[in-house]
Specification:
Order of helices and strands of chain B: EEEEEEEEEEE
Low-confidence stretches of chain A: none
Structural class of chain A: mainly beta
Shape of chain B: globular
Number of helices of chain B: 0
Structural class of chain B: mainly beta
Mean pLDDT of chain A: 93
Largest sheet of chain A: 6 strands, mixed
Number of strands of chain B: 11
Oligomer: heterodimer
Number of helices of chain A: 0
Low-confidence stretches of chain B: none
Shape of chain A: globular
Strand content of chain B: over 45%
Chain lengths: 110, 115
Amino acid sequence: QKEVEQDPGPLSVPEGAIVSLNCTYSNSAFQYFMWYRQYSRKGPELLMYTYSSGNKEDGRFTAQVDKSSKYISLFIRDSQPSDSATYLCAMPEGAQKLVFGQGTRLTINP
Amino acid sequence: DADVTQTPRNRITKTGKRIMLECSQTKGHDRMYWYRQDPGLGLRLIYYSFDVKDINKGEISDGYSVSRQAQAKFSLSLESAIPNQTALYFCATSDFGRGGYNEQFFGPGTRLTVL
């Protein structure tokens, strides 16, 4: 079993829909939870991160962490075609490296 | 301007050939990483380096080697390429100390095909 599991999709939704992307993890020592966004033919870029449990909002994006369930989510409100990308969750393992989920490919249809 | 650059961007080679992928960065970061990305498997760490004299194996280092020529340069070599090394390769950098979340900055990737 991988330390971080993410449904690879693909996920296709109409413009304006609310999107929910999720990851589960097994290492209870993880403290930071990150979401990277990767456009086609580009490298991943950090979208947002949260520390410990709770919610964090940034514009149309909300990151949610439930440490008791080892479950994290990224919600996208009023989704736009420009949100079409692969979204990867990631968690720092100590001070040395990031552990990534498999990534979910998302398409927003106009 | 790209802060993390990779060359080449695309490469097609044959089984058994030696291949070098190069990465340069202008971010002034000490830490550099090499990943490969395969469909359905996400990003997997090949090697990482915390400074010029430090090299560490990641989860899938077999068949690969690296060289940290300078703070800004980190190259990945495939000594004898095989078809299952066909993948998208990414270089990344980070600056330890900027919070505990270890943000990594990725290059644009190199698409490698081994025939």
